[in-house]
Write a structure and sequence with these properties.
Blueprint: E1 6-10, H1 16-39, H2 42-55, H3 62-85, E2 98-102, E3 107-115, E4 123-130, H4 139-158, E5 164-170, H5 174-182, E6 186-193, E7 196-205
Helix pairs in contact: 1-3, 2-3
């Protein structure tokens, strides 16, 4: 196999530690931007100001009263993202997890899929991460194409009314969002806090 060739296969058990590190590194790359986005929304700023004002009556240090709520809020956002995306889910109805592998044997990306909650929801990407050393080299698009093929096959085998793939993306991951839009995906909601999105969901009928 040529060194530059890129293939996708199921993850081997001995690759689990390496894949976990890749997922954690991917979360770290976006968690600070997500925290900054979340904590600079007007409701969050008001809550932080109120918490700081209350702490000023308890703590002797004005600086500590100002910084402690910010520190705790940032930590909560980071822990939430790491718990959600920094680990490997158990194998679901669509198999996997899968890894993208270069011809040289380097594991450079990871993908996990799961069925949607309701009939007709299609399949969901639950993990999609590319090693920082292999980004902008087509790995993400290759994993996405593989995910679409798996979603089509699963929908046909299950008698689903349509083949569909949903990809959640952190609001600060602009590069991933741009790749999805370039592949025909459309933003259709997501989830967040206090009315402000932290994660957008992109979907595509296949």
């Amino acid at each position: 196999m040529a060194p530059g060739h890129l293939s996708v296969r199921e993850m081997r058990e001995d690759e689990r530690p390496m894949v976990l590190e890749m997922l954690k590194a991917g979360v770290k790359d976006t968690e600070n931007r997500v925290a900054l986005h979340a904590l600079t929304r007007p409701p969050a700023l008001l809550l932080l100001a109120a918490a700081s004002s209350g702490l000023r009556f308890v703590l002797a240090s004005f600086a500590l009263a100002l910084l402690l709520p910010v520190f705790l809020a940032v930590a909560a956002v980071k822990l939430g993202l790491r718990a959600r995306w920094g680990s490997l889910p158990p194998p679901g109805g669509l198999g996997g997890p899968w890894v993208a592998v270069r011809g040289s044997g380097d594991v450079c990306g990871v993908l996990a899929l799961a069925p949607g909650t309701n009939a007709g929801d299609g399949a969901r990407v639950t993990r999609l991460s590319v090693s920082r050393w292999h980004r902008r080299r087509g790995v993400g698009r290759r994993l996405l194409a593989f995910a679409e093929a798996r979603a089509r096959a699963w929908a046909g085998g299950m008698g689903e009314p349509r083949a569909r793939l949903v990809v959640p993306v952190a609001v600060a991951a602009w590069g991933v969002a741009g790749m999805l839009e370039g592949c025909g995906y459309q933003a259709e909601g997501g989830w967040g806090c206090m009315g402000y999105p932290l994660v957008r969901e992109f979907s595509k009928d296949l």
